[in-house]
């Protein structure tokens, strides 16, 4: 499967010369703000503002690195980083709750590792398909996954590189298989198992869609296409697994 959307603070990593972190995601939230609200949103600016404030404060030594662009002040740093990051999105959607959580997590990081490798930062901002014609709302994040049942047929309108998410309950030991009409291509797929850590932050375990489920619970099926197209997918029990 191709990597999902680049995490919310990937620009911080790039500036500090770090590699992209693992992807993550968890839980279910309201759909959050749409694309038109992102550019001027204080919530969208918050994680960048926290990182920039720290770079102009106790973490200022990082600004001596030629790969780190801290700009002249916190406000300029925040706006430049956010603007440059948004260039990677065609139609971004903001989850204000996740953005606020991500901003708080930035404050808890050490100066040597400003990126919070968390579900909140990974999915505070996601790309969407603005003219999506299927019937599943806006399931572009695991936090807004559309509920489905085993055996349900999905009629999907998938955009290039934009993942959609569907949550279903599975029992421990169950193996699933994705079925599609003969000859029809299938989107990339993965499963996400939600949880939380000792700090109460949302976590995710990414497992193979072909694996036996490790425990009873709600699993998020992530589907992503290479190129715009219509896909017909049914999630069934793999009786041969």
Labels describing this entry:
2 domains, disordered N terminus, alpha+beta, three-stranded antiparallel β-sheet, elongated, 5 helices, Jelly Rolls
Question: How would you sum up this structure, described in words?
Answer:
This protein has 241 residues and is of the alpha+beta class. It folds into two domains: 10-127, no CATH class; 142-237, Jelly Rolls. Helices cover 22% and strands 24% of the residues. It has five helices and ten strands, in the order H-H-H-E-H-H-E-E-E-E-E-E-E-E-E. The strands form three sheets. The chain has a five-stranded mixed sheet with strand order 3-5-9-7-8, with no helix packed on it. Strands 4-10-6 form a three-stranded antiparallel sheet, with no helix packed on it. Strand 7 and strand 8 form a beta hairpin. The longest helix has 14 residues, at 42-55. The protein is elongated and about 60 Å long.
First CA to last CA: what distance? 21 Å
Order of helices and strands: HHHEHHEEEEEEEEE
What is the number of strand segments? 10
Number of contiguous helices: 5
Our count of domains comes out at 2
Structural class determined from secondary elements: alpha+beta
The fraction of residues in strands falls at 15-25%
- Low-pLDDT sequence parts: 1-8, 11-28
Average pLDDT, to the nearest integer?
Answer: 83
Major sheet characteristics: 5 strands, mixed
